[in-house]
Design goal:
Oligomer: single chain
Radius of gyration: 14 Å
Number of helices: 4
Largest sheet: 4 strands, parallel
Strand order of the largest sheet: 2-1-3-4
Number of strands: 4
Structural class: alpha/beta
Order of helices and strands: EHEHEHEH
Shape: globular
Strand content: 15-25%
């Protein structure tokens, strides 16, 4: 039995979090899921959930960050969650998001 502190990951892994804005509807969520499937990215709506975690490699793909009440930026994540890699993804349609995610590769896989 391996005992893991409550704030630590059992294993270090690369987490990619697709952060959808509050304006996203079901079509955007479905596009994020289809685009993220091969990479098994995490999908959610919370900037805090996207940044939190004691992992060596955390990458946030912020979809349409200008749709947040306070625009999300790399500076915001560095202030609140140091070490997070941030990529702003501007997509005009759910289909654009799905295609972008399918083509995107994390730094370690390029």
């Amino acid at each position: 039995v391996q005992i893991v502190p409550s704030d630590a990951a059992r294993l270090h892994y690369q987490r990619v979090y697709v952060l959808l804005p509050p304006t996203a509807d079901l079509k955007w969520l479905q596009a994020a899921a289809k685009g993220s499937f091969d990479g098994r990215y995490t999908i959610g709506f919370s900037a805090d959930d996207a940044g939190i975690g004691d992992l060596e490699n955390r990458h946030v793909l912020a979809v349409n960050p200008h749709h947040w009440p306070d625009v999300l930026t790399a500076s915001w994540f560095q202030q609140h969650y140091p070490g997070v890699q941030f990529t702003a993804v501007v997509a005009n349609t759910p289909a654009d998001l799905e295609a972008w995610l399918k083509d995107w590769l994390p730094d370690e896989k390029k």
